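tool_call: predict_structure(chain=1)
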Amino acid sequence: MQKIVPFLWFDGKAEEAMNFYVSVFKRSKVVRVSRYGDAGPGPKGSVMSCTFQLEGQDFYALNGGPQINFTPAISLFVNCETQQEVDELWEKLSAGGRADQCGWLQDKYGLSWQIIPTVLGKMLSDKDPKKANAAMRAMLQMKKIDIKGLQQAYDRDT
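tool_result:
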């Protein structure tokens, strides 16, 4: 059992969101779905909570109601190895949502994600400040991160 598990609050769409996320990521699965009984507070038989795994990471989702919404202050950071992976995840997760700056997006449920190629972290932490700054300037101009564009900016300041 994972010691720390992200807890996601939904307004009636926990099961739908879980099934969507499980369809997007490889090595993912539904673990459990709990339904309200006679005691409520939701309608008997409706989904109260679900647990699922995405790429081996446990998540807990609750149909808690409309009182709380997601905020970009908390996001799910996804390390990507290739542009193809960035493109596929970006397309699927941003559909019906919103594309933001610097690899951030909000999905159709309002949850924020960062779809980030691992090479970006290496570039931004380069010991050569000119190269790191060039990568940062390039990234700040992007919504979806483009590895080739980052690499070109990074290499120009060699």
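agent: The first strand starts at residue 7 and ends at 10. Proceeding to next step.
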